[in-house]
Amino acid sequence: MKKKCIAMLLAGGQGSRLYALTQKVAKPSVPFGGKYRIIDFPLSNCMNSGIDTVGVLTQYRPMKLNSYIGNGQPWDLDTSTGGAYILPPYLGPGEKGSWFTGTANAIYQNINFIEEYDPENVLILSGDHIYKMDYSDMLREHLEKDAACTISVLQVSMEEATRFGILNLGEDGYVCEFEEKPKHPKSDLASMGIYIFNWPKLRKALIEDEADPDSSNDFGKNIIPKLLNEGEKLWPYRFKGYWRDVGTIESLWDANMDMLSANTLDLFDPAWPISSRNETVPPHYIGENAEVIYSMVTEGSKIDGHVENSVLSSSVAVEKGASVLYSVLMPGVSVKSGATVQYAIIGENTVISENAVVGSAPDGSDGWSVATCGPDIIIKEGAHIPAGAMVYTGEEDFGND
Amino acid sequence: MTDAKGIIFAYNVSPDLGELVKKRTASSIPFAGRYRLIDFALSSMMNAGIFDVGVIMQRDYQSLLDHLGSGKVWDMDRKTGGLRLLPPFGLPEYHRGNYSGTIEAMNAVFTYLEEIRQNNVVLMLGSLCANIDLTEALAQHTASDADITAICSDRELPSQHYKYVADRDGVVKEAKFSGSAEGLTSLECYIVKTPVLLDIVRKAAEKNQYQFHKEAIRDFLLDGGKMQVYVHRGYVSFVRTIGEYFQANMDLMVPANRWSLFPKERPVKTKNNEGVSTFYGEDARVSNCLLADSCRIEGTVENCVICPGVRIEKGAKVKDCILMRGCTVGKNTQLRYVIADKFAQFSDEEVLAGSSRLPIVVPKESKI
Which end of chain A is more exposed for a tag (fewer CB within 10 A), N or C? Predict the structure, then answer.
């Protein structure tokens, strides 16, 4: 069946800069914003943009992701003509087989899958961005500009530009140069890692790139420069709105805090719902002596302590006499009586035992940062986890008793 | 596979629920912030592996149909069996009024009953608020030689109900029909051997009887039929009046009641409503409340059950209330003992108060 556009979602990365949080799961399945996982954002954008076929490329610890996506039903992807497809690396007859060597290689290895749909265009997405975007508008511009590739770009400050892939434009408005993390950027248009390719042109580029032994098979490093060299038309699609890469602890914490303030990402917007797969649990209960201020709380939770400036996921327990300040609690976290969690991210199902203290308020020093506890661990009674700590097992010694 | 079919009676009119059942049946009343009452019956069956379920309905069932959909939520969208919606069909003239009783309701769908493949039928009220372990009840039923197992509560309930007096082995000796101090409270939930059920319905219809408990069961026992009780130990409410509805919601503030209704091992499923987390503003003061998702709370809220999408503005004081989906409470408005149906709007600076015995019911989409 011929499709105008299908999406390929790169969800295989480990997200090594999230350390303990991605020990057991791939980055796209890290919980975010109370009710979501990171991958809900691109999947919901697909749903809201009318894209009904999404291939999800998995590689690193995909079990959680596989069961989470399932048949794609939460994102209306369980249709007879489209669907959500988990695409792990695989072996063909007589092949040696290999893991995905780069973003472009991941798509190359799935050329057969894409061909099944005979699409005119392919949308390439990554699974670590928090944003709402109408891909159908990007596709419209892509077709209008007759581009081989349209790259979604965000205007950033010149200082930030050194951290991104930067697009320099010619007088006709098309892309004339692509620079990966330039020391002296010539433009402030940063690539968001979201591309729409004309499929026949991408297919050709992927096959040629694969034959090049010197290539690292990456979209930003290889495919985009290759198309530019060949004189293909590359168009920048200017995205305006909230967009965050949540690949680091600080950015993940920041983006979660952003959800508390207005004018960032309106999660309440009925015209652009972000969907997720959730167990059905009863509404949350706020106890008689609880205080919940400037925070988000969701289903299945029981709050009897003090919660301020925090984002709490489902089935969280905050006991009487416990305090949670400026923190992100992932699903199933339990904060026992007398414990304090501040400026911290706590992974799924982790228990903060009685009178433990996790994290501390910013002290103005350069060394300060958010404390992180990985999932499924127990922080012992009375333990002190300092600011910036990364707790994997709960057995670590942080130089205090 | 569980050898039982489920029949849920969702035709109940319960006139004492007043405004709450003006546009819906008792079975589809919103409850506990995110559920409908029928979720308990459906989930009890689902958790016991009963996926072949008929829902008998008669009128005002639009909201019920909307809630049930294909039955997917309860895994009842099946190739064989699954959820079967049973509105009235092809009724003779004398059936045109409200069903006068369970027998009449079953008789109205008798052709459907005749097709039952399973050896047992579980009969349940769609408006009963209880999470019953039907796996255990069915095991007890099958292990005994009883034709009928009556599921009873060990609790005394406020409203009128039937009672069964059983001996030490749980064999029913006598049925009591109102206000008796003796016996166990019937939850009007039965497990019946299929041929026995068909026989009871047929015989009762011949005798022009409508009532299952009052007439058919009485005759069954008089004829020497074998009946036993299964005792459900846990929270129960019949939710037949506005007062009972209010109390059942408020009962959820007690942790033991919540655990009894929503145990981890027997989850209650409901139609999934997309939503974001509930947001608490800087001046929010909330205590002893059950709150669903997608709400924005800026005011003071005490002893309330709050459904999804409710907005409570700054300075508002909401106490001892049930606010259903999408209600808004304006600045400095005070509500006490109010049950607000879906999308009711209270503008700024209003005061509205009922009493604990008689909460005010504000109809759907009212503007105050």
Answer: C
